[in-house]
Amino acid sequence: MSDSLLPLRREMDERAALPVLLYFGTGILWLLAGTVLGVASSLKFNAPDWLGSVPALTFGRIRPAHLNAVMYGWASLAGAGCMVWLTSRLCQVPVQWRGCLIASAALWNAGLVYGVGSILLGYSAGVEWLEFPLAAVALIALAFLLYAASILRTFSLRKVDHVYVSLWYILASVVWFPLLYVVANLPIYSGVVHGVVNWWYAHNALAVWFTPVGLALAYYFIPKIIGRPLYSYYLSLLGFWTFALFYNWNGVHHLVGGPVPNWLQTISIIASVMMVIPVLAVAVNHHLTTLGNFRMLRTSLELRFIVFGAMSYTAVSFQVAMESLRSVQETLHFTHYTIGHAHLGVYGFLTMILFGAMYYITPRVARWDWPRPGWISAHFWLTAAGILIYVGATCWGGFLQGRALNNPAEPFTDVVELTRPYLLLRTISGVLIGAGHLIFAALFAQVLRRMGPRREEAVTP
Amino acid sequence: MMFIRLSVFFAGVLAALFLGWAALVGVPGVQIAAVPPQPDLRPYTFEQAHGRQVYIREGCMYCHSQQTRPQGFGADQPRRWGRPSVPGDYFYDQPHLLGTMRTGPDLLNIGARQSSRDWHLAHLYNPRTVTPQSLMPPFPWLFEERAAEPSETVVHGRFVANRDGLDLIEYLLSMNRTYPVR
Questions:
Q1: Measured in whole angstroms, how far is the alpha carbon of residue B107 from the centre of its chain?
Q2: Domains of chain B: which residue ranges?
């Protein structure tokens, strides 16, 4: 890269600093809150009477609070921060309309406090993934629109001719998500239609927001850090459009065997299997770009997180295609397997990529390097081991649970007993993951407070 | 080099979302919305509706589904959880509580399966007093400690259910879709 770009990069990073660090910092607070809620939910399975007389801490409240805190809090805020920075870099213009972004971060957090607080205090709307009351939904929708406005403004002033594939995902997500979020939250549905809308939304939230964030980052950072071009431009084109087309049709596979029309279940299953195409396109592209450069995983800690994420994406996507088949769903539906699958996606894929991206972006916008590289490595191993144990335990335990549930000779209490060791393993893995998060949060705080040796200039472009 | 015209890009992106919506929500929405309630299904009474709110508030649905699968698909039928449910069974459900987890048994027909108020009271106060292996949470705040009227059931020697607890049980007892599908 020519040195002539350096001053521009400096300026872009400086302009991005405040909004990005605001999204990152508050995102990390939600990560910590979400982790505590998650581990506590898991612990409740091992010791159901623990904190059993506190209404706000009953399992049925902290579990949705966990989901909302990590999805709309951690993943969304950290993701938005990454997208803001990435859009500026890819368009070669400083971030525009920073006031919008700062207002967005503030409103977003206000919505989250209100929403998560409502769930804990017993005012959940009662729909999975859509538990927030309408006032919180309105705040978050507004926050997202402000974020989208800034992204689109920055994009419209772009100084580059080529619109890189990461930007396709970013642009698509900023128009998709607000539409989806508002339509799904309309208080007009009931009965089985509501169930269909619910799972159309819950699956699509991943399709139109969370997965595009993860893929945009993987598409940018893998070639960037390795220092060689993306394996194939045409594959990424194919990957994008098949993704846009098929992912939208998947949601109803969550209701297979339920009281919804058969044809509907069938098209959802077919679309889920078709997802193999975009997934293969992305996988081949990412893995072949990485191939032959695995030694970089030793030197670049960011890359380590991101490649772990890209591999999880491939794994989790094949899981979906397989899992949605009727015969497989017959066993796995309603079990802890689904929970394991969800964590492989949102954690193994998205969160690990977010970690890698934040390790790359933070020192550049904060103009301060990470003080303790050894801690980053510890963070990686704790979370990588943690999520592998988590997914292993819940998927295997869930499979056994599903087989037992489908065996009418097996009393229900035996099914409960059978899952216990796996649920204990899940709590243990949650603690490992939580330890990794504490390290991450401590490192981030150290950068903000400029601790460690002064190495400002060492941060490469 | 531009990959395609931007207007085409955004039109394509919106069309993709719209197609998915139309197929998954629009068309089935029209199809299912035209389904009348099952004739034997009764609307919730005031108490049952309030109990349903308590069910939502306490997050029972994160462990209990409310949908029964047909013969040959899972063991719902041999476990006698009730005949396969149909859209007309859910006519009055807003929000829906179909659920996706069966950490506990399906509850669509719990009123038919377990009609004893006293059993539900003891179970809700602390499930392990009834089923030692249970990992269901206790709900002591649905009870209060006071002298009981003669008509009231006492659990654990000194607790009687409060309004929330009683209405939740009204709701559970009303969960009965065992009438024949018409």
A1: 6
A2: 1-34, 45-174
